[in-house]
Amino acid sequence: MLAKRCLQNDITVIIDTAGNVPFSSFEKILPFIHGIYFDIKTHKNGYTALGGDGELIYDNLKKLTASNHISIRIPIIPHFNDDIETIMQIGSVLRAYSVKEIFLLPFHRLGAGKYKALGQNYAFAKTIPKTDMMQIATWFSQNQIKCVY
What we know:
Strand order of the largest sheet: 1-2-3-4-5
Structural class: alpha/beta
Order of helices and strands: HEHEHEHEHHE
Distance between the termini: 34 Å
Number of domains: 1
Mean pLDDT: 89
Shape: globular
Strand content: 15-25%
CATH architecture: Alpha-Beta Barrel
CATH superfamily: Aldolase class I
Largest sheet: 5 strands, parallel
Number of helices: 6
C-alpha cells in the first residue's frame, strides 16, 4: 500500500475525501495516514442530486470525527448549498457530532475553462460574494463551531 510506504519513508499522507466510500476503505488506511480533509457539501438528503449516498457520507463522518486527524471543509457552491437552511442543517449535524471547527471554502471556478472549451455552459460561473461567505461563517461561529475562512 502506497500510504504505508510513504509513512515508512517519513512522507506525510493526508487523504482528501467526500466520504462516499465504505468505512472499511478508511479502516484499511487510517493506521498509515496523518490526516483527513473531509468535504461536506450538503445535508444528508441533498447528496442524491450529486449522485452520492448521504447516509453513508454522514455515517463515515460520525465515525471519523472520533479521530483527531480530521479537518472538515465545507465548499460553498453557488445555488446549491449557499442558502442558510442548508447551512443550518449541516451545522446541526456537526454540532451533534461534537465538531468544534470547520474550514469554509469559497467555491472555485477552475472548471469554467473546460466547460467553455467543450462549448457547454458552466452552471457555477457565479462567485459567492464575500459578504455571503462572512454571513455563513458568522452563523457557524454563533453556533459554537469555529469557522476558519
